[in-house]
Amino acid sequence: MKTIVDLHIHSKYSRACSKDLTPENLGIWAAKKGIDIMGTGDFTHPGWLSELKDKLIESDHPGLYQLRQNLTPNPSPLQERGNRSGGASLPSPEDGKVADRPDGVYFLLTAEVSSIYKQGDKVRRVHNILLAPNFEAVDKLIAALEKRGANLKADGRPIMGIPCHELVKMCKDADEQIELIPAHAWTPHFGVFGSLSGFDTLEEAFADQAQYIFAIETGLSSDPKMNWQVAALDRITFISNSDAHSLAKLGREANVLDIDPEQLSYQEIIRIIKAGNPKEFLYTIEFFPEEGKYHLDGHRECKVSMLPEESKKRGGLCPVCGRPFLLGVQHRVDDLANRSHGYVAEGKPTFKSIIPLEEIIADSLGVGPSSKKVRAIFEDITSKTSEFEFLIDTTEDELRKLAPAGVAEAVLRVRSGQVKIEPGYDGVFGKISIFDDTDRNKFNGKADQRTLF
User: Which long-range contacts (CB under 8 A, 24 or more apart) does 149-155 make?
Assistant: First the structure.
């Protein structure tokens, strides 16, 4: 069964995150997006952990939790998925197409922590994702972190002075099933391979504990194709998650796994990620990496960005103010790569690049993503099918039935890579567009049999 997994999100207890990030709302938005298994985020925060323990119950699938029934505001998204896409029900098991499907969105206990410490002559700043099999394991890890002086009450993504290799050991001492995955591994400020981390290999960061690191999160500013250029990562599985700070950002990146429903569990998800077998780990859902806010080298204050080769010729200095650029993800990948651009790894999960539905609708209309028109069309589409089904799997004929002509055409263009991108740099998201004004006027001028407003 195709299962969509987003393991890295945040809660209302994290700095600069929406107060709407509650367990109930996460369940609603997972259904809209088509996410089957959602990381809880922030399990280290006492307030959020208390809320999770109060509002989640363990399902029949070990290590996976669901909202308590009295908190579930709408029907099971997995059961409803078939008839939301035009009236057809899900195939029955005897059809040989779909086995018995889980009942609703599942939650897996996750957190992100920030390690800031000195190693050698450098200050290291690395973010890591933690995954836990149950609340008992979480409680044991929290006790160990607090014993080391970590202030877990300050933020949903706590800062601690615990080196990466020690953090792995603490996780394994608390429970062998707790796993650690480097978060957004290439971003400059807090990625293990970021330009400011000082690490060029996992072994430098994790020492003898590197044996337990089986995956990295590629982050919004890189994709698997970029990572395939680094032979040292051949044993590593590349995962993608949203790192969402608001409900609308859930699933902007995700993982698509093929899981036998009878085997569905925390351990099975970990096993599939560790193995990295493309027959089970089907693909990741990706941003176009140029849209990420750290893709190129640049200097935001001077509004200057450059490709790595140009930046290197200038010694990494801004031509306007003379100060150093923030070196981006593409630069760091080029530094560590020993394969050419375009290298395709065999026997690895592939990927599909998307633009979030709200951004596609906004581009087709020539308005901002938060406009009322965009929200109305988004809600209309996701009342009939999930966002991921619409963007990835829906046929052209169905697209045109479900959405205005411009939105349907925009989705088709994104699928074929017909987009224009002004790459992001130094904390500035890239600008991505599908239509020019001529296209927009053409499609918005078409008679549309569907009345949305």
Answer: 150/44, 152/44, 152/45, 152/46, 153/45, 153/46, 153/47, 155/13, 155/14, 155/15, 155/45
Task: Tell me the DSSP string of 269-281.
Answer: HHHHHHH--TTTE
Distance CA 418, CA 404 (A): 19
- Specify the DSSP element, H or E, that contains 135: helix 135-147
Angle at Cα 72 formed by Cα 71 and Cα 77, nearest 5°? 165
pTM of structure? 0.90
Q: In this prediction, what percent of the chain has a pLDDT beyond 70?
A: 91
Can you spell out the DSSP letters for 8-65? Answer: -B--TTSTT--TT--HHHHHHHHHHHT-SEEE---TTSHHHHHHHHHHEEE-SSTT-E
Query: Within 13 Å of residue 276, how many CA atoms lie on the same side as its CB?
Result: 19
Tokens 């290799």, located at residue? 165
Kindly report, residue by residue over 281-296, the tens digit of the pLDDT: 999 999 999 999 999 9
In the chain, the domains with their CATH numbers are 2-290 (3.20.20.140), 356-453 (no CATH)
* Contact (Cβ atoms closer than 8 angstroms) between residue 115 and residue 180: no
